[in-house]
Structure formats: structure tokens, C-alpha cells
Amino acid sequence: MENTIVAIATATGEAGIGIVRLSGENSIDIVKKIFIPFDKKEIDKNSNRMMKYGHIYDQEELVDEVMTCFMFAPHTYTRENVVEIFTHGGIVCLKRVLNLCLENGAVLAEKGEFTKRAFLNGRLDLSQAEGVIDLIKAKTEFSHKSAINQLEGHLSKKIKEFRERLLDILSFVEYSINFTEDMQEELPLDNVILKTENLISDMESLLGESNKGKILKDGINVSIIGKPNVGKSSLLNRILRQERAIVTDIAGTTRDLIKEDIELAGIKLNINDTAGIRETADVVEKIGVQKSIEASENSDLNLVLFDISRELDEEDEKIIELANLNKSIGILNKVDLDKNLNVEKLKEKINFELIEISALKNEGISKLEKSIIDMFFDGKIEIKDKALITNVRHENSLKTSLEFLKSFYGDIKNMVPLDCCEVDLRRSYELLGEIIGENISENILDNIFSNFCIGK
Ligand code: GDP
User: Fold this and answer.
1) Helix, strand or coil for residue 52?
2) Helix (H, G, I), strand (E, B) or coil at 288
3) Is 433 a residue whose pLDDT tops 80?
4) What is the pLDDT of residues 111-129, one digit of tens each?
5) Which residues are 108's β-sheet partners?
6) Residue 230 in contact with ligand 1 by CB distance below 6 A
7) φ, ψ for residue 411 (rounded to 5)?
8) Got the DSSP string for 354-397?
9) Residues with Cβ < 8 Å from 7, sequence gap 6 or more?
10) Is 292 in the pocket of ligand 1 (CB under 6 A)?
11) Whether the model pTM is above 0.70
């Protein structure tokens, strides 16, 4: 029998309520020892999934006034008996209730252990369980949508469909091997070749979208580059103010390097080196170009700013060289001022598109959103009910599975005997299974669930 686990399931801090959650065979009995329902009625299956009002006691001492929800196996998140105690949100209330559960026989849950149990007990497959963590961590509208899709099983369904098709091919191959042994003649392979071709193409198209999926989940690494005074920090502030969605503000290990995550058109933009950008606004000695080169490294996208009120100069030329090497969107800023920049001449030098904005007057930001979506999502983001790869682990398994399938395909086209190419087909099948968690090693599982928070 598995232990009964317990954890504080809500974030700690001062809050209206907090939740202590238990899962395991004994969770209901443990809570019965510390919880006295107001109606004094026996807690049995009649109270399944109902909120009971009552009090938590430590011996004679009243600890908190709570609502408690008893959920009987198997229709629960973990498929085990689960209890959730809704306490007042202060850390002392939560800790006292937690400790009482521990004293009465529960053990402290590890990170992600509730969801791990849900997976091990077959309620979720592994890609769905990973959807849970993505959902909790989602910071933008689209990362939320893609996580909920994954949790709902859209990816799992697709992977299972691929596996069935592989199995179909595999059974024909086995049948054919036996047939040849028995009858001393070979079956035609046209049908198997066609099925394999179709499967390869469908797997390729799922894989082909994985970049989009990863961007939806993790965001685009962006650097805002341009010589001093073109309006980099104004643009950054404009986007920040526009969306009012500063997601995080992480001070990096290098004193100077600060990453800021902001949301534009529902997509997370991880802006590199915001310290560098902001600094140029007040520091006398401005070091724009060097900063730009540093920031541009490791970026998926450069937003390259030019000041339309000033003629192009040597510094702009250096920025252009840099921007031409990467994926870039050119931004002509300060369109509210007189035009002194020769746009036609600029266009001859660059290999990226140009849009006009005024960071000061808040004009043109929607053009910028559109350009980003055109560039990374071919114009529109479609994720409704769609299977999407958003996770590197899934991407790697799918990629390798596809390689084995292609190798099988090459072999049968070259008339390699079927019993020699069958092994690649099997490997391809197994690798797809890893995505949904079949035959996965304990290490990989531990690694995945260690990314969860305690109490989930
Ligand atoms: P950075 O050095 O590239 O970060 O440039 P800043 O954002 O600090 O902007 C430099 C100066 O240009 C500031 O005085 C801004 O107010 C001004 N500025 C920025 N964007 C615009 C704009 O669109 N129009 C006008 N007229 N001024 C702007």
C-alpha cells in the first residue's frame, strides 16, 4: 500500500484561504481524527465530494475553522482517497493543519507527487501530466491554451493514433515474414509502403509545428537593438504599459544582464538585457552598439530600431550588419517627427521588413504584433483543439521515432528482407510510447515531476 501523502497545496503567504491536501488509502481516516464536522454526522460515502463545515482540533485546542472536502477513490485526481482542507490562508493555520496530518500518519508529499500518482494510477498519461505543470506555469493566454489542450489529451490522442498506425504496419510485416517462411514466396509491399509514407508525412507535420508550440509555451527570445536614443527603452516601456503584463523580473547572475518577460499579442517575449536598454536612457557614456551585439546573441528575434528623424550614420550601419545576420524586424521609430532618414536607401541595405511606429505617441504597436505573428506563426495562431508539441522531451522522442520509421522505409524500398527492418519499426513504436509515458524509466519520471511544485 502506498503511503498517504500530505502537502500545502496553495502558495504560502497571507491569503483568504489555503488548502491542505491529502491523498492515499488513509487520508479520510487521518482527517477524521482532527476534523469535527459541525453537523456531527459520520463521514462516509454519502459525503463524497461534498464540502463539510467544521473545526480542526489539536487534542482539545481549536486550531481553525475550515471547510473540508472528502473525495473517495477511485473518482479523484489521484484515483486514491483524497481530502482537501480549506483553512484560513495564514501560514500558521496551514502549518498546524499540515503537522496534525503528519502526526496522524501522513507523510510529506514530494514535488509533483499527487500528479505522479494520477499518472501511475492511469488517470492521466505522461504528456497530460506534463500539461498540468505547463498549465500552472502558463503566463500568457496562448501558453495557457496550449497547456489545457495537452491536459485534455489532444497530443496523447494524436500519438496514440500514430502508434496504432505503426502497429498496423508492424502486424503486416510480421504476417508477411511468417507467410514467406511458410509459403516460400513474398507478399507485395505496395500497401505497406503507402501507409508508411502517409505516416511519415503526418509525423513530419506534427514535428514541423513544434517550434511554434515551444514558442507558445516558452516565448520568443527578443533583443531590442539600435544606437543610443533611437527609442529602445521607450518601446520597451510602451509594450510594458500597453499590456500591463510584466511577468517576471529576473536579475541574472551578471550584474548587468536582466531578462524581462512581457506579453505582446498573447505571446511571451523574453527581452534580453533590459538593463542595457534602460541604462542608455540616463547614462552619459552610451555604449549602444556593443550592447546590441551582446544582446543579439542567443535571440530568436531582433527588434531593430532606427530613428526616422535622423539620417543613417555609421552606428546604424553596424547595427544593420548585425541585424542582417539574424531574424529581424526593422522599426522606424519617431514617425511623429520630421522625416530625415532616407527610407529607400535603408531598404537597399537590409534583408528584413520595416514598420513605422511612434513609441512616444503609441502608434504602430499593433503593426509590430502583426509582424511577429506573421513571422513565427505564418499569420495566425491556431491552437483550438489542436495537437501541438510544446515540450523538448516530446520533440526529441518524436524526432527519433521518425528517424527509425524513415530508416525502415528506406530499407523496404531497397528490398532489405523484412525480418531485418522490423526492428526499426519496433523502436519507432517504443519511442512514441515514451511521449505518453509507456515503459519510461524511473529516472525520467523523477526528473519530470521534480519540476512540479509541492502539493500538485
Ligand atoms: P534609447 O537610448 O534607445 O533607449 O532611447 P530612449 O527610449 O531613451 O529615447 C531617447 C529619446 O527619444 C527620449 O527623449 C524619448 O522620449 C525620445 N523618443 C522615443 N521614442 C520617440 C518617438 O516615437 N517620438 C519622439 N518624438 N520621441 C521619442
Assistant:
1) strand
2) helix
3) yes
4) 999 999 999 999 999 999 9
5) 6
6) yes
7) -65, -45
8) EEE-BTTTTBSHHHHHHHHHHHHHTT----TT------HHHHHH
9) 20, 21, 98, 108, 109, 113, 114, 454, 455
10) no
11) yes
Q: Is the CB of 276 under 6 A from ligand 1?
A: no
Per the prediction, the chain carries an average pLDDT of: 87
Q: Whose CA is nearest to atom 25 of ligand 1?
A: 334
Contacts of residue 276, Cβ cutoff 8 Å, sequence gap at least 6: 256, 257, 291, 294, 295
Question: At 449, which amino acid appears?
Answer: F
Walk across the sheet containing 354-356 and list its strands.
248-251, 258-264, 267-271, 220-225, 301-307, 328-333, 354-356
Ligand 1 centroid vs 235 CA: distance in angstroms? 8
Evaluate the CA torsion angle 444, 201, 157, 131 in order and state its sign: positive
The SS3 call for residue 257 is: coil
How long, in residues, is the chain?
456
- The number of angstroms, rounded, from the C-alpha of 253 to the middle of its chain's C-alpha atoms is 24
Q: What is each CA distance from 50 to 46, 78, 83, 267, in whole angstroms?
A: 9, 17, 11, 39
Mean pLDDT of 17-42: 97
Cα–Cα distance for residue pair 217/211, rounded to 1 Å: 10
Residue type for position 68: T
Which single residue is written with the C-alpha cell 472536502?
Answer: 69
Indicate the pLDDT class of residue 289, thresholds 50, 70 and 90.
low
Helix (H, G, I), strand (E, B) or coil at 311: coil
Q: How far apart are CA 281 and CA 235, in angstroms?
A: 12
**Residue 281 CB–ligand 1 contact under 6 Å:** yes
Grid cell, residue 413, equals 524500398
Show Cβ contacts of residue 383 under 8 Å, excluding neighbours closer than 6 positions: 142, 145, 146, 149, 216
**DSSP 8-class letter at 282:** H
> Residue type for 306, please?
F
pLDDT band at 211 (very low <50, low <70, confident <90, very high): confident
Nearest residue (CA) to ligand 1, atom 22: 334
